[in-house]
Design brief:
It is built from 8 helices and 13 strands. With about 300 residues, the chain is α/β, with parallel strands linked by helices. Among the domains are: about 55 residues; about 100 residues, Nucleotidyltransferase, domain 5 (2-Layer Sandwich), CATH 3.30.420.40. Helix 2 packs across helix 4. It is globular, with a radius of gyration of 19 Å.
């Protein structure tokens, strides 16, 4: 039997958390909630001289007390770290892949490889007309001191092992598990838009596999333009989108209305709790479930 999985998400002054246990095709929700701090927890983790790591660690210990998870999946938003998509030959030697991604990270960050930690996840494999196969990799470049600050916090948690993930990795996992237009078949193209006060995230899945994510600073006023730009970059058309979902802390009806004429499907709020056994009536009507997509998503097995 699979062990439960715990996920946390850090965004501004809020830490959101979830713990899930897989039960056949669905998940049992063991815990879900948030901690609000009177300081920016992300800025604290990014600081070279942090002052409140003990406060964050104590809060995390409280909310995860009694967990049976052996590892914490930590979701960071792309605004908080350097992130990029990379196309590489398929197949490729793991050592060669790592060196290539390190070289790209050095070039994009302007820093030596000794000052950051590299994390990456693989996604969609596409075949070019001439038969060459390429795989997308989503790369996260984390400053070494931020990883050290996270480790200091997480060492005191009930499960001290942790893995750093992008928030969009959790979104892609959630999107790939949502029911498509045809039973048993993933959507041809699924698009999720993350709406936050500080930035907007875009995640695209192709036939259930994570293809690419990117983000833009600022709120989602121009989400229509950047959604179409992402599709164009990948050689896809708006008419291919069979799933359009919004999540985050600033999803608005105005944005949904602006997106409606561009795609053949209705935009909806992404509710990850439909993947669980939780009765939706047990939550208060004011509970913003779409804000929990990243932390629930990284906890999905």
């Amino acid at each position: 039997m699979e062990r439960p999985r715990a996920g946390i998400e850090l965004q501004g002054s809020v830490l959101r958390y979830a713990e899930l246990e897989r039960q056949e095709a669905r998940y049992h929700l063991l815990r879900l909630g948030s901690c609000d701090f009177d300081f920016d927890v992300v800025a604290e983790l990014q600081s070279q001289a942090p002052r409140y790591l003990d406060v964050v660690a104590e809060a995390l210990c409280d909310v995860l007390s009694g967990t049976r998870a052996s590892e914490i999946e930590v979701a960071l938003h792309p605004l908080q770290v350097l992130t990029f998509g990379s196309l590489q030959p398929e197949p490729i030697d793991p050592g060669v892949l790592h060196q290539r991604l390190i070289a790209e990270s050095v070039w994009l960050s302007g820093q030596e490889a000794t000052v950051f930690r590299l994390y990456f996840e693989s996604g969609w494999v596409q075949t070019l007309p001439e038969g060459e196969r390429l795989r997308w990799y989503q790369v996260l470049v984390l400053p070494a001191h931020v990883e050290q600050n996270l480790a200091q916090v997480l060492r005191r948690a009930p499960c001290s092992a942790f893995r750093i993930r992008l928030s969009t990795a959790g979104v892609a996992k959630t999107l790939s598990r949502m029911p498509g237009p045809e039973p048993g078949l993933p959507p041809e193209v699924g698009l999720a838009i993350g709406c936050y006060e500080t930035h907007t995230e875009y995640t695209l899945c192709r036939r259930g596999s994570w293809m690419l994510s990117h983000y833009m600073q600022g709120p989602a006023a121009n989400a229509s333009y950047f959604s179409l730009a992402l599709l164009h970059k990948l050689g896809l058309a708006a008419g291919m989108v069979e799933q359009l979902m919004l999540y985050g802390t600033h999803v608005t009806d105005t944005l949904m209305e602006a997106l409606r004429p561009l795609f053949p499907v209705e935009p909806v709020r992404l509710n990850p709790l439909v993947l669980t056994t939780l009765d939706p009536r047990s939550l208060a009507s004011s509970f913003e479930v779409e804000a929990y997509v990243p932390c629930i998503g990284v906890a999905l097995s």
